[in-house]
Design a protein that fits this description.
Radius of gyration of chain B: 24 Å
Oligomer: heterodimer
Structural class of chain A: alpha/beta
Number of helices of chain A: 15
Number of helices of chain B: 24
Radius of gyration of chain A: 21 Å
Strand order of the largest sheet of chain B: 1-2
Helix content of chain A: 40-55%
Strand content of chain B: under 5%
Largest sheet of chain B: 2 strands, parallel
Largest interface: A-B, 62 and 73 residues
Structural class of chain B: mainly alpha
Helix content of chain B: over 70%
Number of strands of chain B: 2
Order of helices and strands of chain A: HEHEHEHEHEEHHHEHHEEHHEHHH
Largest sheet of chain A: 10 strands, mixed
Distance between the termini of chain B: 40 Å
Shape of chain B: globular
Strand content of chain A: 15-25%
Number of strands of chain A: 10
Distance between the termini of chain A: 52 Å
Amino acid sequence: MRRLSVLFPLLAALVVTGCSSQSEEVNVYSARKEALIKPLLDRFTSETGITVNLITGSADALVERMKAEGEHSPADVLITTDAGRLYRAQQENQLAAVDSEVLNEKVPAALRDPDGHWYGLSVRARVVVYAPDRVDPSELSTYEALADPKWDDRICIRSSDNIYNQSLTASLIAHNGEAQTEQWAEGLVDNMARDPVGGDRDQIKALAAGECDLAVVNTYYLGSMQGGDDANAREIANQVAVFWPNQEGRGAHINISGAGVAANAPHPDNAVRLIEFLVNDQSQQWYAETNYEYPVRGDVPVSDVLREWGEFKQDDLPLVKLGEHNADALKLMDRAGWK
Amino acid sequence: MFSSPALRSLFLLLLALALAAPVLVVVGSWLAGASSNWAHLRSTVLPSYLGHSLFLVLFTGTGTLLIGVAAAWAVARFRFPGRRVLEWALLLPLACPAYLIAYTWTGMLASEGALQQALSLPLPDIRSPAGAGLMLTLVLYPYVYLMTRAAFVSQSAVALEVARTLGAGPWRRFFRVALPLARPAIIAGLALVLMETLADYGTVAYFGVPTLSTGIYRTWFGLGDAKAAAQLAGVLLLAMVALLTLERRARKERRISVASARTAAPLPLRPGPGLLLAAALWLPVLLGFILPTLQLLVWSLPRWRGLAESEFLGLLGTSLLIALCTAFAATGLGLLLIWARRLRGDRPRRLAVALAGFGYAVPGTVLAVGVVLVLASLDHGLNDLLASAGLPQPGLLFSGTLFAVVFACTVRFLTIPIQGLDAGLQKLSPNLDNAARSLGTAPLPMLRRVHLPLLRVPLATSSLLVFVDTLKELPAALVLRPFNTNTLAVRAFELASDERLADAALPALTILLAGVAPVILLTRSISSPDPESSHADH
């Protein structure tokens, strides 16, 4: 009984704090990890006086939470790190259409939903990195060519559980059709130097260690290894080089981190203001500098590390296609035996 | 018609249903129809999911049994150098989340890592199914050790002495007397290990081992097929029900309640074998705690300034608060359910105990989403009710509060006190209750004056286990927490899963250190024999 008497006031206090609300605030459900979004949100608060309340988590779980909370959901803004999840949230009717001149002007059409349900905040490219001592860049050309038997036992890539691989495969389905992409996936699986383990940084490490000659990774992982303060990681990252695939054709596969206004947002105006803030000059530059991502806006300079990799052509496939083909991509990877 | 015990049984069943609701809602709401993807799964990935899950269960089960039981027997029965320290040191890996040890070992074994540099040998890649089994074994064997040691320590000396006078050698005494007597405890520990193994996500996902647990995520979120995911979760639940049934059956076969005043004193070993034994026992501690901690220390050294940030204390405070509330709630509820079943083992109460343990069998995120669904519908119901009464709607009262997090963790870890207290109560002879009742003691005073003092060890063990587990628990805290609330596990995982191990090291170390204190308490709770328990059966 003594236990209960301690617990009860505590729980009551929690319930009370749970339902307190102020007017000048905006609530963010973010799949972007706190370290990679909080500094910007703090800056937003200091500039506008609007308090930002934040929770982070996996995008899928956050969308489930929004769905369950329904009309009472406190969520104003959903931030994810890929377009596929934004598409799914939209399919589940969790995002509201926004008509913002600022956003329509600053975010290129391919990087946002045509009806304004979500907008890209930063661009992340999935590229081929190679070991210059073992691979001549002239041997490299496209994602499609990764299935070529000449790469037998030479490629490192992470599991097909990962959304970035699912999106890459979805983009190939959109361009080449399902049958051809399945053959590609089978060829790629044959060429893997090892069963997929670890994350993108692990693929880079394996490449530097000589376990494979090519790896498929997102650029910001390499960028943060090159520009970070870990001497070991810097050394590893400097042993590999970036190759931009499909530059003769459609361009390199990209994804976005992006945001949308929640369908039941209690503070929709503040939500739009926040997203507009995230695409302004300083915020866009922050993405480039801090997380080695590319700004969605062409007029904002990229970080020094990124500049060294050179300019590249982006695939302008509308990103909704990544969401549309995601389930097919996954099944195809299952069939091809991509673990 | 409703006598009051029957009414109470009904109440207990409803309580257990509420606790199982998050799992039942998720699985139930999806099982509405057959999924069109099931054939696809069966012909492609399902055999691999099942195969790997089975492999991990066998590997981790065998490994934790060998280490846990052997260590418990050695520490309980022999005296050798360093035994006092090993008693609690053997529990230390408990403080280490499985995903963390997976990341740390990967870092140590990487070609640029410390171990590889020091040994300059080609070390095997830890990121394999066997590697995942090894990681899980290293952090989970303490469950078996803890429960088994408690059983060995409280075992009566009489049974062993009788065996000795009948001419049984030390091995025979162990296998024919001590082990069978400790079986309920061993199986209780093993059941926890296996359930945690089946539900593990972090380690297997990082090591690229496709299991039922990773399959659920992949199917639900990648394929967008909630039904097929539910069917996979259903397979996990079935496996758990099978485990629990096996466990109950194993206990029923030999229901032994030996209670004796005197426990056996540990035998001194000669220095040679003593040192050898000590060295062998240090091995799992070294691999499961000391080496990973050292590696984390090295990684976090450049970042010690971070500790001075006030935010860090906030993280620690929130983590401890959630862990404390969960430990109390889970132990209290577990005691209520188990004890009620002892008073009256009717069908509703037996069912209640079985239902209440469901939360442990599904991966954390599945459970967390279940909690979201249950609490949100509770909120919606409440709002609709108030609205129909013409009152203002309060919005969400339960969703997104610390209560939601504590509720989720309680549901998840309720199995631990249920297993622990069940094993503890089973050891108490029913004659004890009969004697108390014949003296006219009502049930509640009997609980307070007879059972609780005798259950001191399992109570302490269970609540501390839940405490440490909650400290490490991630998905529930991640998805369910209120705005601007962080825990150590959330911080550590966010950074580690982003492969920023150096940044993750500091919060991770803090989890380990925060887990060490309860682990030491755990040991003390077992080794200090309760004065009351030695008199209770006279």
